[in-house]
Design a protein that fits this description.
The protein has 366 residues and is of the alpha/beta class. 27% of the residues lie in helices and 25% in strands. Helix 11 links the parallel strand 17 and strand 18. The mean pLDDT is 96.
């Protein structure tokens, strides 16, 4: 079938809206009529080829929509079901078998290869194959082809046009708090970076009862929003040393910290601000090969550094929980979002990179 898609033609090039061909679903695949999709930092990282998904490609990995058709072997969803699309795992490695699918041993190939496992792609552009199956969805398009395992059925009364970011960025930030760190109520936490991932972590920390909740970001408006969403303190790292400021607030440092910026110097601060036996979660996705250094004695005294992928979540369980919290008014996802038409994707990307929009949502032209 013919679909409209935002194609990434080459490294660091602007997205181009084109009509391309998409195959019908295979037996284990689901065709989704995309209502809206989030634009994520990871999409831009791949556009700029810090992660080497072959270009040209259709990117997009925070899609939400309505199931349009299913393959003959699909039993999880049916046409007409509202769904959010998330990441894909192999389902057979030891991590997947132990319920830790965010750490699938084949995670990179499953999500970034631009191809199915057999090397095929569902997309043709001018008769030539182009990369698809990005995060097993490629949702910068009016229709997406997902795998049965990475579609999540959601409650029909939730506003579907807002839910796509739950599939990746929001799930990552919230899950890093709720699943990975799993703090007790009253525990202190510092969150470095108040973008969509960091602010999702702030909302999650507030929902589970952390205090103090300290947000660190150089952007005035983002610090103000962090306070609105539950942060008790907001630090401008350009005006004061965040490590010293955090220790002044807490006395000895925080029990938990999260690093979302992908900057090595900020990662170091996120570790140095911990109290003894504190835990730092690393979320920020730096270019491959990025290195960071620490004082070994800081780690020696019981501190832990923990990498976090997709918020350690099982999407079929965690995404519906976040939606329930949103519907109860306890996780105000809508405060992060600005909507754009698909045709304005380059403006959305520019606004995201400039920090003027926290989470762009691309609305499909149906």
């Amino acid at each position: 079938m013919q679909i409209t898609a935002a194609v990434t033609p080459g490294k660091s090039e602007a997205f181009v809206i084109e009509t391309i061909e998409m195959e019908d679903p295979r037996p284990d695949e689901v065709r989704v009529k995309v209502i809206a999709t989030g634009l994520c930092h990871t999409d831009l990282v791949v556009r700029d080829q810090y992660y080497p998904t072959p270009l040209p490609a259709v990117l997009g990995h925070e899609g939400a929509g309505i199931v349009d058709a299913v393959g003959s072997a699909v039993t999880k969803v049916k046409p007409g079901d509202p769904v959010v699309m998330s990441y894909k795992a192999c389902g057979t490695c030891h991590s997947c078998q132990e319920g830790e699918q965010a750490y699938c041993l084949d995670l990179f190939a499953q999500n970034f290869a631009g191809r199915r496992a057999d090397g095929s792609t569902p997309f043709r552009r001018g008769g030539e194959p182009i990369s698809g199956m990005f995060f097993a969805q490629s949702s910068f398009a009016t229709f997406a082809l997902a795998h049965e395992t990475n579609v999540v059925a959601v409650r029909p009364d939730a506003p579907l046009e807002l839910l796509g970011p739950l599939g990746c960025g929001v799930q990552t930030g919230a899950g890093a708090v709720m699943n990975t760190l799993n703090p007790r109520a009253g525990s202190s936490i510092a969150i470095f970076g108040a973008g969509s991932v960091g602010l999702s972590a702030v909302m999650a920390a507030y929902a589970v009862g952390c205090t103090p909740i300290i947000a660190v970001d150089p952007n005035d408006s983002r610090r103000e929003l962090a306070r609105d969403l539950g942060a008790t303190h907001a630090i401008d790292p350009t005006a004061e040393d965040p490590v010293e400021a955090i220790k002044a607030i807490t006395g000895t440092g925080v029990f938990y910290s999260l690093e979302t910026s992908s900057l090595p110097e900020v990662f170091r601060q996120a570790v140095d601000c911990l109290t003894l036996r504190g835990v730092c979660g690393l979320i920020g996705a730096a270019p491959l090969g990025t290195e960071v250094s620490f004082d070994m004695n800081e780690i020696l005294f019981g501190r832990t550094i923990r990498g976090v992928i997709e918020g350690d979540s099982v999407p079929d369980i965690f995404i519906p929980r976040l939606i329930d919290l949103f519907m109860q008014g306890r996780f105000p996802l809508d405060r992060l979002i600005k909507k754009y038409d698909l045709a304005d994707i380059n403006q959305a990307a520019a606004d995201s990179e400039a920090g003027t929009t926290i989470k762009p949502i691309l609305m499909m032209p149906h």
